[in-house]
Amino acid sequence: MPNIKSAEKRVEVTSRQNLRNRMIKSELKTALKKADAAIAAGNKEAVNDAYSAIDHACSKGVLHKNTAARKKAQFAKKAQ
Question: What pTM was estimated for this model as a whole?
């Protein structure tokens, strides 16, 4: 446990951010798996949900913008 007050605060803030990031990552993975399954079944409209999840993760800083663009391009390719 840190002795300095600012270090104690950083521990708390970091744990909150870590929880938020893990939740967003988990939601993203779930959405991508569902979209993959839907594309395999022939439902191409599921790509929009995947795009939305990718954009959300990107806007929260969980994904880099180039990673998000790459993932969206991969889904567009799969959907064709």
Answer: 0.83
What pLDDT tens digit does each residue of the chain (80 aa) get? 788 999 999 999 999 999 999 999 999 999 999 999 999 898 877 788 899 999 999 999 999 999 999 999 999 898 88
- 5-79: which CATH number, 1.10.3720.10, 1.10.10.10, 3.20.20.300, 1.20.58.110? 1.20.58.110
**SS3 assignment, position 19:** helix
